[in-house]
Specification:
Elements (H helix, E strand, L loop, with lengths): L9 H17 L3 H19 L1 H25 L6 E5 L2 E4 H27 L2 H8 L4 H30 L9 H32 L17 H22 L18 H14 L1 H15 L1
Antiparallel strand pairs: 1-2
Helix pairs in contact: 1-4, 1-8, 2-3, 2-4, 2-9, 3-4, 5-6, 6-7, 8-9
Length: 291
Amino acid sequence: MKHIFHIYHPAVVFCYIAAALVAAMVTRNPVAIGISFLAGSGYAVYLRGARAYLKTLRMVAVLFVVVAVLNPLFNHNGVTAWFYLFDNPVTVEACYFGLAMGGMLATIIVWFSVYNEIMTGDKFLYLFGKALPTAALMMSMIARLVPTSRAKIGRIRAAQTVMGLGAKTGSWRQRVAHGVRISSILMSWTMEDSIETAESMNARGYGSGKRTSFTAYKWTAHDFFALGLILCLSGAAGYMLLGPFPLFEYYPILGGSLFSGEQIAGYVVYALLLLFPLMLEARETIRWRIR
């Protein structure tokens, strides 16, 4: 599906997604984490559809639960003991910190799913192919590996199921054997594709001279305006949330501020930054309907 960022310069797209990812990795503020997760989820649903998002959400939910549960079991920081497990205290502070870290991990995964939709391989290579040709190519291939492998697994499973060798048929030993067979086929298929890709690139002269781009992106007034707005919103949100204002702390005891005047302003600016593409989409939809 075409989206509004499809017509913008790759540098604008990269700055937006980089700001969203860096902010999700840096902040420990639970309100900011929630805003980022909701904004990323809304954008992911818009780009990929509810069904594809729910598939990602199932994996995200598992990781969230694992992090939220394991952190208080192995991290005993904090002064408020909730209960003791094997003579080790499970503290309230560690539980809240585990929830925050699980939410942060879930938010990062959601934003990476958005990244795969709006920052395509050709855009990434256009930005970094000349300066870092090998690294840019490797990153592009790695980003493409997951969806490609998922599609291959679906085709392999379908073929094996028709032959009565599906991973869900037979005894548990047969299921394990069928699963190993599917993994072996996937690895062989992936290695064969890698060899074909390497031979194709060698035949086309990759690395023999100065790299050019198939698509020529040009800067427009819309690109400069969008880039400037993204940078301004990123700076303002970062200053409001991480600047010299009261911060929420987990250790050694829960405390600090979450809803000071500066932080509320930071939440608003942060939400505007993350919802920027959706607001552009809404503006275009309204303009087309008015016409």
